[in-house]
Fold this sequence. Notes:
The protein is mainly alpha-helical. Helix content is 63%, strand content 2%.
Amino acid sequence: MKNFAKPKTMLLRVPYATSVFVLVCLALGDSPQASLLAFDREAIFAGEVWRLWSGHLVHFSMQQLFLDVSALLLVGAVAETAFGPRFVAWALFFGMPAISLGLLLLAPDLAYYRGASGLVMLLAFVAGAAFWSRQPRLRVILAILGLGLFVKAVLDAAGFVSDMSGLPEGVRVAWQAHVLGAGMGWASARLKLKNLQ
């Protein structure tokens, strides 16, 4: 008689790496000094390279900050449960400048950016890749969620900004950051899963 192992369940753990990131975001908030840290195309090209990282830590409004950190904690909990806090910490650390460099290259009209929504997408797709690999019965739900995020990106690109975004008048959603974050999250998680096999 064969001995079958119980299927692995994903019990969420405290997301330590994500929590540290969230605390930094909360500390910086939408303070007046945020403009010194925001993604600013001209300032980056003038040598202020720290903005490649710090632009993801500051926000335009408290509403945008609340939405970003809430989503980060949720997807961070799943991502850290699946891959551990070290992987998530590295993904955030390298994801910040990678998304910013992507914005410099692919969104030449984007002069300013603030927010962690690109990193939310990165961790969401890390979490999604973990579920895709380890919970095949959820693939239909994950595909529907992915399609929903794709539709949202298309609507954001077309200029349909939700009132829930918390962005001030005249500031558009940087949908490119979302797409870049999603691609990096999926790719890094798939690479990690491949190395674990």
